[in-house]
Amino acid sequence: MGVSARIKKSLHSASLIRRVADEALKMKQDGNGPVWNLSIGNPTVDPPEAFYRTLQQEIEQKKSGSHRYMSNNGYPFVREAMAKRLQMELGIPFTEKSIVMSVGAAGAINVTLKTLLDPGDEVIFFSPYFVEYGFYVENHGGTSVIVDTDESFQLNLEAIEKALTPKTKLILMNSPNNPTGVVYREEDLKALAEMLNKHNRQHGTTVFIMNDSPYRRLVFDADKTPDPISYYDHCFLVSSFSKDLALPGERIGYVAISPSCHEAELFFEGMAFSSRVLGFVNAPALMQHVLPSLLDEDIAPLKRWYQKKRDLLFDTLTGFGYELVKPGGAFYLFPKAPGGDDMAFYRKLKENRVMVVPGSGFGTPGYFRIAYCLSTDILENALPVFEKLAKG
């Protein structure tokens, strides 16, 4: 006996995103020419200059104690800075005890699920979805309930209402969305809040919402991203600085607990405990020291960089005949696969040295995901292949 049956099963159904990325790496080493890898959301843009300046200052100061353990929830001065920033953005009276610093957004999600779920509690999330959600929920004894979005990848309120049961504990959403780039509409979030308030009264329970929102500042056609925490009391906002500051490898994120959330103070304490027992202990100390000076960093140039690529791909692919919803944020496109078979289309692209992720990897067969957080020459070199294969 060796590796557990559970892990063996998970490895078999593990993320197509990573499998495709591994295939792309092998192809780069096979000596048969360049590979146009549009499969992974790993920004090729560098962090802002302010990051390097602040990092250098922190290192040169050699402040005693700055690399030791701190509270499992993070440094109070960092949490206070985050609370003030979010209060300014959302108009919600966050305090330092509303914020838990985390090892990226994934760490924040797992800490929250560990604190929230009892065995058998149901967690609703929406397809297309980030495939790791199912593994995260399973990690903490929950049961995944997957609800389809509508044809535009917006919330299907009727389907959500049918999926609610007395065992529903959490709705886990992702807006702006990976893989579609869709931003959920404000009116739908308000309607969802009303629906959940009614459900809570009827069943004497509390359904929570967690929005996994690392792309929350990367929106192109609006000033900001509507967030459920603005319309519903029992909310957690999860985010990171992997995308908007191009720091995915530094693993620095947070969860913000709505001050009006049921048992908000107990959640703050519970997340500290969960951070410890999950082995995260605390978010990286050096990144916490660097972060406060970057919270007001102007990301408008980065947004323009992404929007230009979105517009290039959207306009060109629709011109080739591809069907897709225009994304309002993040840095992905999710077109329909010509012929309807996403795995077959993936294989055709792979034969032409272009790598994408089949929609099956996001619980939505028949589509494929393009990541455009890449240099323009990679995108432009891939486009002739998409044109050649446009008719299936």
Compute the separation of the termini in Å.
46 Å
What is the CATH top level name of the largest domain?
A: Alpha Beta
**CATH third-level topology of the largest domain:** Aspartate Aminotransferase, domain 2
Ranges where pLDDT stays below 50 over 5 or more residues in a row are none
Q: What is the CATH superfamily classification of the largest domain?
A: Type I PLP-dependent aspartate aminotransferase-like (Major domain)
Overall 3D geometry?
globular
What is the number of domains?
A: 2
Briefly note the structural class of the backbone.
Answer: alpha/beta
Tally of helical runs: 13
Oligomer: single chain
Structure commentary:
- The chain has about 400 residues and is an alpha/beta fold.
- The chain has 2 domains: about 5-45 and about 300-390, Alpha-Beta Complex (Aspartate Aminotransferase, domain 1), CATH 3.90.1150; about 65-295, Aspartate Aminotransferase, domain 2 (3-Layer(aba) Sandwich), CATH 3.40.640.10.
- It is built from 13 helices and 12 strands.
- It has helices at about 5-10, 15-30, 50-60, 75-90, 105-115, 130-140, 155-165, 185-205, 265-275, 285-290, 300-320, 340-350, 375-390, and strands spanning about 35, 100, 120-125, 145-150, 170-175, 210, 235-240, 255, 330-335, 355, 355-360, 370.
- It has a 7-stranded mixed β-sheet with strand order 2-8-7-6-5-3-4, with helices on both faces. A 3-stranded antiparallel β-sheet has the order 9-12-11.
- Helix 8 links the parallel strand 5 and strand 6.
- Helix 5 crosses helix 9 and helix 11 (about 300-320) runs parallel beside helix 13.
- The protein is globular.
- The mean pLDDT is about 95.
